[in-house]
Protein 1
Amino acid sequence: MSIKADEASRRGVITASMGNHAQSIACSASIYGVKATVVMPHNISRTKVEALRDLGAEIIFHGSIFEEAREYAEKLAEERGMLYIHPINEPLLYPGVATMHLENIEDLPDVDIIINPIGGGSGASGAVIVAKSADPSIKVIGVQAEGAPSFYLSWKQKKLVSTGSANTIAEGLATARAYELPFSILIDRIDDIVLVSDEEIIRAVKLLAELEGIMAEPAGAASLAAAYKIRDRIRGLKVIAMITGGNIDPEKLSSWLAK
């Protein structure tokens, strides 16, 4: 359904997300006085839920994986006449996401490698667009969870792949399929994709907390997990590891730090 901007303001917007995208939509909606509804899978961290509620978003829980939440959001958008914002295939999202990579390259123009997690793929897409435009020699490495490797498999097979499941502690990486827009951007531009286990992600979360005082959620720490995994390959190079989320439940972090 096509909805004009004034109708969106009156009826509200709806999207699906596992965290960061939801907060950006909720924040924007609050600025413009638009009602925002976010559909999320069950078992999303309490920290993310509280942040969204603080921004005034209505949260609907549906399904156990992102794809189930996304499909339900699309259904609700049709039923309620709301403006649906696709969390991955919406081109207008990408310039905003890419600005973080532009800022990093402005600060470190001689960077050799950028490592960025891949859930839906907008962050890694922003990385390749900016990095390859600034200097084609900059390598961009994506990271996926071993239990949610849909994009990795798609990249390897050069076609869109759906695994049908996503089994990882990293909510932001828990996608069960690859999506058209990021796939078209990354297929011939990204230099490598590394798979990391949940155990490797937890170790990265602990390292960031203990050594740097950074509270990173599992998906946010995935880039460090990958950097550690390929440390022999990148030793001596200038590397940017994108820490892309800090929405971790304090209880979960405490339990990992105590081990």
Protein 2
Amino acid sequence: MADPYQTLGVARGADDAAIKKAYRKLAKELHPDRNKDNPTAAARFSEVTGAYDLLSDTTKRAQFDRGEIDDQGNPKAPFGYGAGPGGGFRPGGGRGGFEFQEAGGGDFGDIFEGLFGGGRRGGANPFGGGGRSRGNPKGADMAYRLAVDFDDAAALKPQRITLSGGKTVDLKLTADAVAGTPMRLAGQGEAGPGGAGDATVTVEVKPHRFFTRDGDDVRVDLPIRLDEAVKGGRVKVPTVENAVMLTVPAHSSSGKVLRLKGRGFHRRDGTRGDQLVTLMVDLPADDAALAAFVEGWTGDQDRNPRAALGV
């Protein structure tokens, strides 16, 4: 029998915040989408999810601590008999990386149940299960991938998704979802005798033609003219939401990085990363006047800009 405390790597007296923090870390490391060639990671992901499901439920945790149930939520029957096939937990829980409402305005409320909350499915059965009865199994779970434009993901713009049954749902993205945490839609899977299964949605951020992501920051190379680099000035630069004006300092070389505060990806704490703008001096291919100027320019010929490289 596995000890859920050991599975999550927390002490038996750990509070809810410590348990949630440990689960977030392990779920991110072990999620199958990040370990497609590692079946061991997928098994561990299932273990830590089950452990978190038990320990985040106050009643189940107390029963486990008293030795009344095992790590699967099954009662410890006398004389060594198990709880039977109805026992166990299914991963699920409280609100996660999406808030959503039905397209057209109907509020779905708490239909999104993600990995990191305290909600639970219906009442317990005699075998310790989370609402599934032995005679009436729920329908199969469904998995979805939602490809989101880079700009929309950074700005957390609402998205629309159509489920397999044809239902259209408007989603409000959050930082957790954009970070790759799969979210659970309770009751949105296939129908079954005991009710519908669940659905999970994993957000995939599409690559951008000129933006790249660096943690919570966004990077972009910005071409500037030679006169803009030498004299400095105000230039227009794109961001994930709109174009803004940026001040280029005089005598700026290619590779100089300027920072636009709060123009990156949203963080879980409500703050945002920055946009890092790398200046790239763009010279015209054939400019006779520029070539003539350089021919007659002697002010910088004795300087070696590569000296720091040892050449």
Protein 3
Amino acid sequence: MLEDRLSELRSDALARIAAAGSPEDLERVRVDVLGRKGTLAQISKEMGKVAPEQRGAVGKLLNSVKQEIEAALEAKVSQFAEAALRERLDAEWIDLTLPAPGVRPGSLHPVTQVQTEIEDLFVSMGFTVLDGPEVESEYNNFDALNIPVDHPARDAQDTFWLTDGNLLRTHTSPVQIRGMERLRPPFRMIAPGRVFRNESVDASHDHTFYQLEGMVVDREVSVANLIYFMKAMLTAIFHREVAVRLRPGFFPFVEPGFELDIKCLICGGPGCPVCKQSGWVEQVGCGLVHPNVLRMSKIDPEQWNGFAFGLGLTRLVMMRYSIDDIRQLQGGDLRFLRQF
């Protein structure tokens, strides 16, 4: 009789559900009992053979057995889920009161390290370290430095202009202007800081990098004084003599102007992407301060003169540590930064 078979099915299914040791075992019970070809489906097909007066009672019993088995399956699934969660929590439990494992001490960025060394060096030679804003006025960034209105450096391709008419400083030279407003000659000052250029990025160029400006204003300052300070700085930074060359260069704020190059320390001279295959890296733009710059800062060029230089601090770091791609310095890759 179907009633006996349903009772037997219920007992057997509930026993198998209770004995299931894994979600896989439980799934096999479900398929065997409730699947399309399962035992309950086979019994349901025989309902047509039941006498009409008994179909109501047998159908009610069939639904009851099905609901009871489904409820037992659902309870067992929940039991397995809870057990898995407890196991995962036990395995992943962390005592937050304990010190973190493998703590690594931090370190200063290589640019900061070299900048600090240069600051200490120049302070020992009587220089004052100045700072200035990264958002500058057109006057401080260009006009006060004797840079003409039609100079290419003012073009949008080189400068990040802001909507209010100001700009992101393209060099640290504006700090010299601010410094001359605060200090009266004789004085010596340097100004390290971050600058911005609207240019394409490659192995030796970035839109954001670091410079260091320097200026000495005194009586009877000469190019020889400039070269002395530059060589002293490079020797101190690289801890050895470096080959340099001085060649004429045009900078509106100095006259005469020079470009001081150092022999590429990445390739040693044959040529590489950093030195643009030339064997030399432009390191310092320098020269004697243009009289117009002194006049605009209310310093009498008949009484005072001086020299100024702009150092590529980021490139100096590349030479110091043999870094062949400037983009690594601001890439944020901890694997790279942990080397310093």
Protein 4
Amino acid sequence: MKKHHLWAITAITGVVLVGLVAAAASARVSSPAKQAASIKACVLLPDTVTSTRYTLFDAPYLKAAFKKAGVPALILNAHKDPQKQKSQAQQCLAQGAKVALFDQLDPASGESITNLLVAGGAKVIDYDRLVVGSKASYYVSFDNPTVGKLMAKGVIAALKAKKQYSKHPVVSELNGDIKDNNAKQFKQGYDSVLNPLFKNGTFKKAASGDQWTDWDAIKGRRIFDQILARNGNKVNASIAANDGLAGAIISSLKAHGLKPIPVSGQDATPTGVQYILAGWQSGTVYKSVRKEANAAAAAAIAIVKGKKVPGVNGNVSGTKSIILKPVWVTKKNYKLLFTEGFLKRSQVCIGQYKKLCK
């Protein structure tokens, strides 16, 4: 009988233990529900390839702004994967995000993700890139057509300085990604300045010299090699839609044993500034990511706290917008990047470029 009692006690104990384990498991399963409201704001950044800015500048600036305001936020990067970005948007909603700063990878996924966020109860702020026709509440970016105009005017100024403006220079264009609305607006800007000059014969457009690159510097290098071949190495100037593409052009020129030509750029990268100091790049468009990040964060924080969104100064494609002013940077004013804390001297004035910093 004692053995039977012992067995019964063991069985009962086992049942109790199973119940406890099940309860613990249930608690673990339900724990995400407790964390459902763990954030109030979410940032969906696109990649680390098309520009280093998202890692070096956007993420830390945004993190600091949300922390200062006491708004719990999650900052994610999709690493150029639209499906991953969609999953990250779902993650943001699951954790309780009420507002999302969203920088799309492409229009199709951009609209889909925006709709997902809005259906989940979150307000969307298009960050840097506008999702045309979407349900976003606000758009924060720079004046993109003006960015393009600055590039064209910078190249023209460099041609005049080299006394080539009146000699019917051959000019090419390396555009960004045709799927990127920003890239289209940059092109709209520089074409508005250059097309009249092509039309009246002041400039000649290089044969096969107006191409899209997907923001891929390797592809850009290959394309510019082909442009040089089609034009007998006689290309006198080129638009490069960002510093990465400018670097592609410069590496091509060097590989062919050619001298520097007027080349534009954008993003004010350390390498871009070094090329400017060395005379290989005419200038770069500086867009203060600090200002952009702070403006976007301020909008998100205002939405979270139920306040009026500050800084709205325009309407782009039906979306209330906060539009910021870009700056053309050359040898004359590059130190602005240091004084505003965008770059450090130690990032630029090193190695062979140290002696060029004055």
